[in-house]
Design goal:
about 250 residues, alpha/beta, six-stranded parallel sheet, 8 helices, binds NADP nicotinamide-adenine-dinucleotide phosphate
């Protein structure tokens, strides 16, 4: 894959970049710097999204059919959405296949597993296991998945850390802390000590923004429950870092 632009040359490819991640913002910035026409797409889920440089569109496409229509405006697509954003990744794969539009999946690697972490295959399983492990878990699975923990942890003293408030009524014993990474080990140690956390629940999001909680849990001897990633679609062309994604786009021009 060649990623070298000849000085003065312009890469004419029009890129749809499905984002909502730090990697997508990084790629958008590097594409703009390289003179590539890129439109970042955000779902519109959070109240105050971090905006990438370059053109931005916000909101769903309306499933595969809507994506297929939208693809008429673009030459290539990079799906740099979060590793757990399964719906949009499946939709864009189907739409690009049907329309014959080249698609690259940019997915950050998961965290290097620690032997003490307990991996589970879904949020239900995470909830059931956490109920056995502690009374005061720190829940960091994102607003959309909080509901899966209510049946198992309704009478636990859960501290749920989310970017925006969950849109369901939470048990009275629960507390919500609204914040957004990147976090620090010092900050996460203080949070977990203050709440006297005795378990941590996370998805295998990977990356550096939210990794500090794992170090804090390790330092405090708090058990960690990790929701494993969904299996990747074998049809997807995948890279795990921004550099190769940039190279791929430039090679398409
Ligand atoms: P999802 O379940 O895979 O997608 C649900 C629907 O939201 C999609 O069918 C699509 O609506 C719309 N959508 C999702 N991502 C979009 C995007 N980048 N641009 C336009 N529409 C999008 O997604 P999710 O897990 O809710 O994640 C939503 C966004 O938040 C993603 O962009 C993701 O990168 C970011 N994010 C997710 C997580 C997470 O843990 N899931 C964490 C951090 C950031 P239509 O069907 O109408 O097209």
């Amino acid at each position: 894959m060649s990623g070298v632009l000849v000085a003065g040359a312009t890469c004419r490819v029009r890129v749809l970049l499905l984002g909502g991640t730090a990697e997508a913002r990084d790629l958008a910035s590097r594409l703009v710097d390289a003179g590539v026409e890129v439109t970042s797409s955000l779902a519109g889920r959070v109240a105050r999204p971090r905006l990438p440089v370059g053109a931005v569109r916000i909101g769903g496409f309306g499933g595969v059919a809507g994506l297929r229509q939208a693809l008429a405006e673009y030459d290539v697509v990079v799906d740099a959405t979060h590793p757990f954003a399964q719906g949009i990744s499946a939709n864009v794969l189907a739409a690009c296949e049907t329309e014959g539009v080249p698609l690259l999946r940019l997915e950050r690697p998961g965290w290097d597993p620690d032997p003490s972490w307990r991996y589970v295959t879904g949020h239900e399983e995470a909830a059931a296991l956490t109920a056995q492990l502690g009374r005061r878990p720190l829940l960091t699975v994102g607003r959309q998945h909080v509901d899966a923990f209510v049946p198992h942890l309704g009478d636990h003293r859960v501290l749920a850390r989310v970017v925006d408030p969950p849109d369901l009524e939470l048990p009275r014993a629960w507390r919500v802390v609204l914040s957004r990474g990147p976090y620090t080990v010092e900050g996460d140690l203080a949070l977990m000590r203050d709440h006297r956390c005795d378990a941590l629940v996370t998805k295998d999001s990977g990356g550096t923004y939210t990794r500090s909680k794992l170090e804090a849990a390790g330092a405090l001897g708090v058990p960690v429950v990790v929701v494993a990633r969904p299996a990747p679609d074998p049809r997807a062309l995948v890279v795990h870092a921004v550099g190769p994604a940039l190279d791929w786009v430039l090679s398409c021009g």
